[in-house]
Design goal:
Number of strands: 0
Structural class: mainly alpha
Largest sheet: none
């Protein structure tokens, strides 16, 4: 087995190649990451806590992030229990939705300079924050 066949060696290549171009290190660059099942579980739990248990309205900046939603989807798909999680997340979660709606309303009320938001935009924000659950 040579150096490039060893997964533990590949996971450190990004650190060894510091002369990467912007295309290789930009927001859309794809890098291999190797996580243990325990790390996958921890990452999922942290994101789900941020979204559905953290009371701080500042957490909404991350709760609705398309990048974090993408991470959540990828780690869910890599999880040993992916099929169970996909099934569970395919159904609306009334408790999580009520929590998220209340957190969003608090956030809107806390704004120093209130923003005008259409009902369509509010629904889009809610949907993004609710991911991976569908909105009723």
């Amino acid at each position: 087995m040579n150096k490039h066949d060893d997964p533990s060696s590949r996971e450190h290549e990004a650190y060894e190649n510091t002369d990467q171009s912007n295309a290789e290190s930009g927001e859309h660059a794809v890098k291999p990451v190797y996580l243990t099942q325990g790390e996958i579980n921890a990452l999922q739990k942290a994101i789900m806590f941020l979204k559905f248990e953290c009371e701080e309205t500042d957490s909404l900046l991350y709760a609705g992030s398309p990048l974090l939603n993408s991470v959540l989807e990828k780690v869910r798909d890599a999880n040993a229990f992916a099929e169970y999680a996909k099934d569970f997340h395919s159904r609306p979660n009334a408790h999580a939705e009520a929590f998220m709606r209340a957190k969003l309303e608090r956030s809107y009320e806390e704004e120093l300079a209130p923003h005008e938001r259409t009902e369509e935009l509010k629904a889009e924000i809610l949907s993004s924050c609710m991911y991976p659950f569908p909105v009723k």
